[in-house]
């Protein structure tokens, strides 16, 4: 490791004798690209820079004062598009990260690999590979930096874990009062991007959740006025009544009638078993349970290409308990299902999430990862599919589940 100092900045870099740097950046597919790596102490913070060997050493050395910075922690590329940790592609500017602006910094030193893992406030990541040396020295530098910043530092079996203290923003929970501040006098959300960020970071209070979810689940557009929202609610209610009138009777042939009857029976069984401990929806004579059944039957008729499969009732319950109005619940559920793994594996990225889970398992629990790798196809993590398919619905109680 080479350390150089000047009046304006201090630079820490790792470089081989051949003039090339051998710190790799691992992409989502596990491919590693070697490149130049350096830490530069600017007035605005400690900047990590990395650029592929074939791009030249100076292209990643932009100061955080210059255009292209993002307070998510990861720097923007030359065209202004922020690189939020999806290391599947690396642009010509490489990677620039202000460490004070990120969520956490981890060093992971196993018998096989030496990694530096950086996660930004959007929970996106960059994974640097130090298999040719330098991580131990870098860890010492990071310890010193964390001490100066009065950051939280925890020692693990594999390295250190740092939560930067400086520049991390504390986000309040979105209450009804705070949500109203995002609305102008006509009811339009004035800054939906910032509102979404605040919801993501700080969460939503119980009393505001119904109104906020109506916006997030597209019951009304954020640009709608109060009058437009009221009109849309009436329109959605009428459309839902039309769908309810489609419940088949004599128009079905015997085969279709048998399929419909089987689906209705499945829905009734699942609704009886879903959250049976919750008095709000349990019980054969409970009107809320009857509403759940109607919504799922109508969804089956409205989206025949989707049909009904086990697990849909799990996803419906939280939406129902928050929004309550049957027609609104139906359309919110319809919107949610269109963005779920049931309808679009590519959108929800189920297999990519499982790949991330495997990577985390290998980094943080290498012994378990090694064991699973020797037991057939255990590393496909089939047992974890349900977690992502129904958003941990059966793994958490209702209160933390609503936050998820």
Detailed description of the structure:
Helices cover about 40% and strands about 15% of the residues. By secondary structure, the chain is of the alpha+beta class. Strand 8 and strand 9 (about 125-130) form a beta hairpin. The two termini are about 40 Å apart.
Short synopsis of the structure:
The chain has 404 residues and is an alpha+beta fold. Helix content is 40%, strand content 15%. It has 14 helices and eleven strands.
Q: Output mean pLDDT.
A: 79
Binned, the helix content reads: 25-40%
Binned strand content = 15-25%
Compute the number of strand runs.
Answer: 11
| Number of continuous helical runs | 14
Shape: globular
Record the SSE blueprint:
Elements: E1 2-5, E2 10-14, E3 23-26, E4 32-42, E5 45-52, E6 95-98, E7 104-109, E8 114-119, E9 125-129, H1 135-149, E10 152-155, E11 160-163, H2 176-181, H3 192-202, H4 206-216, H5 226-244, H6 254-273, H7 287-302, H8 312-323, H9 326-338, H10 345-348, H11 350-364, H12 366-373, H13 385-389, H14 398-403
Antiparallel strand pairs: 1-2, 2-4, 3-4, 3-9, 4-5, 5-6, 7-8, 7-11, 8-9, 10-11
Helix pairs in contact: 5-9, 6-7, 7-9, 8-9, 11-12
What key phrases describe this protein's structure?
alpha+beta, eleven-stranded antiparallel sheet, 14 helices
């Amino acid at each position: 490791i080479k350390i150089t100092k000047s009046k304006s900045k201090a630079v820490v870099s790792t470089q081989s004798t051949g003039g090339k740097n051998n710190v790799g950046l691992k992409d989502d597919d596990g491919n590693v690209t070697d490149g130049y790596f350096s830490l530069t102490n600017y007035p605005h913070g400690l900047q990590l820079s990395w650029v592929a060997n074939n791009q030249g050493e100076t292209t990643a050395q932009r100061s955080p004062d210059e255009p292209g910075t993002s307070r998510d922690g990861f720097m923007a590329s030359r065209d202004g598009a922020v690189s939020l940790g999806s290391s599947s592609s690396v642009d010509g500017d490489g990677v620039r990260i202000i460490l004070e602006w990120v969520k956490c910094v981890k060093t992971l030193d196993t018998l096989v690999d030496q990694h530096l893992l950086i996660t930004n406030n959007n929970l996106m990541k960059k994974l640097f590979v130090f298999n040719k040396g330098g991580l131990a020295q870098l860890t010492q530098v990071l310890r010193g930096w964390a001490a100066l910043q009065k950051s939280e530092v925890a020692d693990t079996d594999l390295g250190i874990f740092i939560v930067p203290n400086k520049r991390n923003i504390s986000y309040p929970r979105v209450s009804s009062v705070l949500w109203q501040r995002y609305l102008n006098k006509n009811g339009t959300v004035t800054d939906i991007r910032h509102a979404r960020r605040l919801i993501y970071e700080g969460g939503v209070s119980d009393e505001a959740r119904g109104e906020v979810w109506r916006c997030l689940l597209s019951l009304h557009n954020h640009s709608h006025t109060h009058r437009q929202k009221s009109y849309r609610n009436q329109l959605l209610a009428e459309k839902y009544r039309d769908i309810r009138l489609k419940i088949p009777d004599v128009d079905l042939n015997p085969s279709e009638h048998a399929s419909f009857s089987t689906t209705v029976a499945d829905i009734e069984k699942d609704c009886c078993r879903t959250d049976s401990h919750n008095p709000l929806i349990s019980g054969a004579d409970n009107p809320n349970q009857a509403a759940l059944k109607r919504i799922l039957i109508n969804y089956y008729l409205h989206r025949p290409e989707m049909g009904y499969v086990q697990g849909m009732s799990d996803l419906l319950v939280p939406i129902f308990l928050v929004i309550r109005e049957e027609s609104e619940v139906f359309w919110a559920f319809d919107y949610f299902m269109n963005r779920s793994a049931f309808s679009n594996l590519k959108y929800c990225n189920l297999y990519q999430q499982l790949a991330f889970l495997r990577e985390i398992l290998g980094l943080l629990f290498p012994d378990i990862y090694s064991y699973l790798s020797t037991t057939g196809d255990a590393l496909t993590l089939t047992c974890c599919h349900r977690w992502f398919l129904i958003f941990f619905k059966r793994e958490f109680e209702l209160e933390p589940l609503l936050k998820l």
